[in-house]
Amino acid sequence: MKKEFNKNLTQLNTFGMSVTAKEFVTVTSPDQIKDMVKQSIFKSPFFILGGGSNVLFTDDFDGIVIKNEIKGIRLVKETEKDVTIHVGAGENWHDTVLYTIDHNWGGIENLSLIPGCVGASPIQNIGAYGVELKDVLTHVHFIDLQSGEEHSLSNVDCKFGYRNSVFKQVLKNKVFITGVELRLSKQHTLHLTYGAIMDQLSSVGIDNPTIKDVSDAVIEIRQSKLPDPNALGNSGSFFKNPVISKTLFDEIKKSNPDLRCYPSDELNVKIAAGWLIEKCGWKGKKIGNTGSHAKQALVLVNYGGATGLEVLTLANKIIKSVEEAFNVTLEPEVNIV
Question: What pTM does this model have?
Answer without folding.
Answer: 0.88
